């Protein structure tokens, strides 16, 4: 019998030890080489890290909701206590990354989900692993807030005309109670909080990163009463009622930074509370008994968690967290503070903070593929003066000089937004570039980034200032080119969304300083982008980039668009896009890839047919990363 088995085995066709790695069915790889199977094998530990994001507390059993991924997509899990098992409670093919229990009762869990990254979100009640649809199944709907007693939920929806984000309220236990409470114009509307008596609610209208208007809404009549002077260019955040009826917000009125304070609903007067912070207060929450507020300041990208005693005004700083980034807060009924925390040496995980002792307790410990994350390199803050003397900064991760001696290649990675900020978080897959390939990574915060005050964030607004942020990239490249540990002859650049536009622009304007570029879900022509982005967000983007309907602005938008100067793109480019992207349509990638190839250039193109504004499904993200490694090995290391 053993002899027969041996003969049968020898009769099987011989296969090589390494073949090509299978490509996910939903990906279209145009102009890319196949991924050799040894690459997934080599990178496997770096691909298998997980994260766990704090989502909320159950008000009665004191369990925690977290979002984490065990298969292909992120789902909601329940954790009964610190470091206890993560019990999965949503089981969808598409990501379900947030959930909110009804306050006080915990009898209803609301989640939000879209299909294929299209961002036409629907709200559901999740129970026993099943989703009960609460919205229309067609329009774009976004969860806003629960009433403090857990009876009502507020959300915005484009169901009326596909463009305007009207405001709705319902008791999710009886969807027939669904009611539009305000018909509005524009896509930036949301209900921030219900008043304790549920007769009114606070409404915010986001116009731009520096201009947010706030109003009081009568839920019975729909009458909207402005709070403060809406003619002022003021940004307001948070907007949450304390038990005593005081309205707490963050505001940059009278300051270059967001400060924590209270706002008089009748007069609109803002009163800063607590110490005078020199950085933005980026998030806060109020305890259910009204005794304290937890908030975080964004200090050069690093989060500092602080607790304000409302009665005395005293502030204590939480010392039990290393340098890193904290997500939004949620204070449990019994006082514990839930957070997400991540750093260069810690994947995102869920923690709690005791407001009395300030003790930090870890609730999840996400797997990191067996790698010792404590060996990951910490970034260094680099500050330079740009072309016009403006101070700009970024974070530089250097590979181990002992393992990789001599001058090293570098990849600059530009954040999106542009109202975003690069911060010192966990590098995930990118740690392979640092630890195994010896590639340095630099994350710049060019003008227009958040976190450095409202003056800084507005320095790139409109088409006539837009390229000043591009010049900041050039200043960084020049400064980094003089660094003794970096090889200026081997620099590459990547970016996604607005960072993708910056990537295209760099490919044009800094082609002599760059070997190659990797541009992801990127704007190639501002006019076609504004004409084709989803209507609910078009006006919001015009505030930032310019109005293509105005002849002078349209001409400038065309002038600064990378597609206009595509003949100057002479180095290889890797373009990645999502087929269902509602923000930057896939046509933006199609037109620049075609233009580059028509002129004899090299352009790899990876399309995710089941993805939106960036890849979210693990199998697609993995393949994208392997393709990028091949691209950088070919164009940066060789």
Main attributes?
638 residues, 11 helices, disordered N terminus
Q: Report the end-to-end length measured between terminal Cα atoms.
A: 52 Å
**Roughly what is the average pLDDT, rounded to an integer?**
94
The secondary-structure class comes to alpha+beta
* Strand percentage: 25-35%
Helix content: 10-25%
Give a quick account of the main beta sheet: strands, pairing sense, barrel closure.
9 strands, mixed
**Count of DSSP H/I helices:** 11
Which consecutive residue ranges, at least 5 long each, have pLDDT under 50?
A: 1-18
What sort of overall outline do the alpha carbons produce when their principal axes are compared?
globular
Oligomer: single chain
The total strand number stands at 38
What is the radius of gyration? 25 Å
- How is the largest sheet built, in terms of strand order? 1-38-37-36-35-33-34-32-31
SSE layout and pairing:
Elements: H1 2-11, E1 27-30, H2 38-47, E2 52-57, E3 64-69, E4 74-79, E5 86-88, E6 99-101, E7 109-113, E8 122-127, E9 130-133, E10 141-146, E11 153-157, E12 166-170, E13 179-182, E14 189-194, E15 200-208, E16 211-218, E17 224-227, E18 236-241, E19 247-251, E20 259-263, E21 270-272, E22 280-286, E23 292-299, E24 302-309, E25 315-317, E26 325-326, E27 330-331, E28 337-343, E29 346-353, E30 360-362, E31 380-385, E32 391-397, E33 408-414, H3 431-435, E34 440-445, H4 454-457, H5 466-481, E35 486-496, H6 498-509, E36 516-520, H7 526-532, H8 535-545, H9 551-560, E37 573-578, H10 587-598, E38 603-608, H11 618-637
Parallel strand pairs: 33-34, 33-35, 35-36, 36-37, 37-38
Antiparallel strand pairs: 1-38, 2-3, 3-4, 4-5, 6-7, 7-8, 8-9, 10-11, 11-12, 12-13, 14-15, 15-16, 16-17, 18-19, 19-20, 20-21, 22-23, 23-24, 24-25, 26-28, 27-28, 28-29, 29-30, 31-32, 32-34
Helix pairs in contact: 5-6, 7-8
């Amino acid at each position: 019998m053993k002899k027969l088995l041996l003969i049968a085995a020898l009769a099987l066709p011989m296969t090589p030890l390494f073949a090509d790695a299978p490509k996910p069915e939903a990906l279209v790889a145009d102009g890319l080489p196949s991924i050799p199977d040894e690459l997934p094998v080599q990178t496997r530990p770096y691909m298998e890290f997980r994260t766990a994001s704090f989502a909320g507390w159950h008000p009665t059993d004191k369990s925690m909701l977290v979002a984490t991924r065990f298969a292909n997509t992120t789902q909601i899990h329940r954790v009964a206590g610190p470091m206890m098992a993560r019990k999965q409670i949503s089981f969808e093919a598409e990501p379900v990354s947030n959930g909110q229990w009804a306050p006080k009762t915990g009898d209803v869990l609301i989640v939000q989900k879209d299909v294929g990254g299209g961002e036409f979100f629907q709200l559901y009640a999740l129970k026993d692993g099943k989703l009960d649809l609460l919205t229309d199944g067609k329009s774009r709907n976004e969860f806003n807030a629960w009433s403090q007693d857990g009876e009502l939920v507020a959300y915005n929806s484009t169901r009326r005309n596909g463009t305007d984000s009207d405001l709705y309220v319902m008791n999710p236990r009886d969807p027939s109670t669904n009611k539009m409470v305000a018909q509005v114009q524009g896509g930036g509307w949301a209900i921030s909080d219900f008043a304790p008596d549920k007769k009114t609610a606070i409404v915010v209208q986001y116009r731009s990163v520096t201009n947010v208007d706030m109003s009081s809404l009568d839920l019975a009549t729909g009458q909207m009463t402005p709070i403060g002077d809406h003619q002022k260019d003021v940004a307001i955040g948070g907007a949450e009622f304390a038990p005593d009826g005081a309205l707490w917000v963050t505001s940059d009125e009278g300051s270059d930074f967001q400060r924590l304070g209270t706002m008089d609903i009748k007069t609109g007067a803002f009163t800063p509370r607590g110490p005078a912070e020199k950085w933005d207060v980026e998030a806060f929450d109020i305890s259910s008994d009204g005794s304290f507020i937890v908030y975080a300041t964004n200090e050069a990208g690093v989060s500092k968690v602080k607790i304000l005693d409302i009665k005395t005004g005293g502030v204590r700083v939480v010392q039990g967290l290393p340098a890193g980034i904290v997500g939004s807060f949620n204070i449990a009924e019994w006082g514990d503070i839930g957070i997400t925390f991540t750093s260069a040496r810690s994947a995102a995980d869920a923690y709690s903070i005791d407001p009395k002792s300030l003790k930090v307790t870890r609730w999840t410990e996400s797997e990191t593929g067996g790698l010792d994350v404590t060996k990951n390199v910490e970034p260094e803050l680099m500050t330079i003066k740009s072309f016009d003397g403006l101070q700009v900064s970024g974070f530089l991760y250097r590979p181990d000089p002992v393992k990789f001696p001599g001058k090293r290649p570098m990849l600059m990675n530009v954040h999106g937004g542009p109202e975003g900020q690069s911060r010192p978080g966990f590098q995930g897959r990118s740690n392979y570039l640092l630890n195994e390939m010896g590639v340095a990574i630099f994350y710049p915060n060019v003008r227009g980034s958040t976190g450095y005050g409202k003056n800084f964030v507005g320095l790139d607004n409109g088409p006539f200032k837009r390229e000043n942020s591009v010049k900041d990239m050039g200043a960084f490249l020049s400064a980094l080119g003089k660094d003794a540990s970096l090889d200026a002859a081997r620099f590459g650049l990547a970016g996604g969304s607005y960072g993708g536009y910056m990537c295209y622009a760099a490919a044009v304007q800094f082609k002599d300083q760059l070997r190659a570029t990797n541009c992801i879900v990127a704007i190639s022509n501002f006019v076609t982008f504004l004409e084709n982005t989803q209507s609910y967000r078009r006006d919001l983007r015009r505030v930032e980039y310019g109005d293509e309907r105005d002849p002078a602005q349209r001409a400038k938008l065309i002038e600064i668009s990378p597609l206009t100067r595509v003949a100057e793109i002479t180095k290889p480019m890797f373009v990645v896009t999502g087929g269902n992207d509602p923000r930057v349509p896939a046509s933006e990638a199609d037109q620049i890839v075609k233009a580059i190839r028509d002129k004899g250039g090299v352009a790899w193109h990876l399309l995710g047919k089941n993805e939106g504004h960036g890849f979210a499904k693990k199998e697609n993200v993995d393949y994208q990363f392997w393709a990028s490694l091949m691209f950088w090995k070919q164009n940066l290391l060789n």
